[in-house]
Amino acid sequence: SIMREISDLDHLESQLKQSLPVSDVKVVSGDADQSEEVKSLLGQAAAQTLTQYVHDESIVTVTGGSTLAAVAKHMKPLNQIRPLFVPARGGLGDMHEYQASSICVQMAKQMNGSYRLLYVPDTVGHEVYSKMMEEPAVKDVISLIRQADIVIHGIGDALKMAHRRKADPKQLELLKEKSTVGEAFGYYFDQKGKTIHQLNSIGMTKEHLTNDKTVMTVAGGTSKCEAISAFFKWGTSDVLIIDEAIARHLVKHI
Ligand code: G3H
Fold first, then answer.
1. Lesser CB count within 10 Å: N end or C end of the chain?
2. Burial environment of residue 86 by CB neighbours within 10 A (0 to 12, 13 to 18, 19 or more)
3. How far, in Å, is the centroid of ligand 1 from the Cα of 80?
4. How far, in Å, is the centroid of ligand 1 from the Cα of 154?
5. Kindly report the CA angle at 8 between 5 and 12, in degrees rounded to 5?
């Protein structure tokens, strides 16, 4: 019955709260790899959870991807609260809807907040990187990322993300060779949480993941199970919003 399922999810949440270094865990039922509806439920849960942390002066920095796009869809205006949304990443791949900047625009619209844009590629060559980082518009966004009190981000399967970024065959080979499993904020890491490859990326870096920020991690789907386990060895999160597929995996593997 439905009641039985709900208490089952509650049980998963409390087990994970005890065993992971996070302050809150939300689990939605199902597997996001199997149905778009589950991704939508994840988005709904994340948007709802954000309301517990956001305040009028909030600066919320946001990554890209289909999961974060689902979060944006479910945001609603909150009385007197108009946060500033700042993209944590530049652009990647061909999908406009998955860009951090596009997601910030939608989040700001849905919550009557404001936004900034980061219209640069998320990965550039060495020389361009240092030049770009001197641009006032880029510096401004980086400074807001540093000041952000809330981070909402996705986690990707390493190879899937490398394909989305159109990585060259040599790079793909390296990621495979080193058994890279996950990707977050432009870092590719292995099962032990070791960084295998970091992009010359414009936007948020690991150094910005300071403990004065509330970090919300949103991810679903069996294909991301290993990536999430590894993420906890690589970085930190305060609030975890996942689906049942990932929750059951984590309970078994931590
Ligand atoms: O960094 C990871 C990606 O943003 C995840 O993308 O939500 O489309 O799987 P996705």
1. N
2. buried
3. 31
4. 5
5. 140
- Using the structure block, give the residue that is written with the tokens 């499993």: 181
For a mutational test of ligand 1's pocket, the pick from 39, 61, 89, 98, i.e. the residue with the most ligand atoms closer than 8 A to its C-beta, is 98
Average pLDDT over residues 15-19: 96
pLDDT digits (tens, 9 = 90+) for 107-166: 999 999 999 999 898 888 889 988 999 999 999 999 999 999 999 999 999 999 999 989
- SS3 per-residue string spanning the chain: CHHHHHHHHHHHHHHHHHHCCCCEEEEECCCCCCCHHHHHHHHHHHHHHHCCCCCCCCEEEECCCHHHHHHHHCCCCECCECCEEEECECECCCCHHHCHHHHHHHHHHHHCCEECCCCCECECCHHHHHHHCCCHHHHHHHHHHHHCCEEEEECEEHHHHHHHCCCCHHHHHHHHHCCEEEEECCEEEECCCCEEEECCECECCHHHCCCCCEEEEEECCHHHHHHHHHHHHHCCCCEEEEEHHHHHHHHHHC
As for ligand 1, residues whose beta carbon falls within 6 Å of it are 63-67, 154-156, 161, 183-184
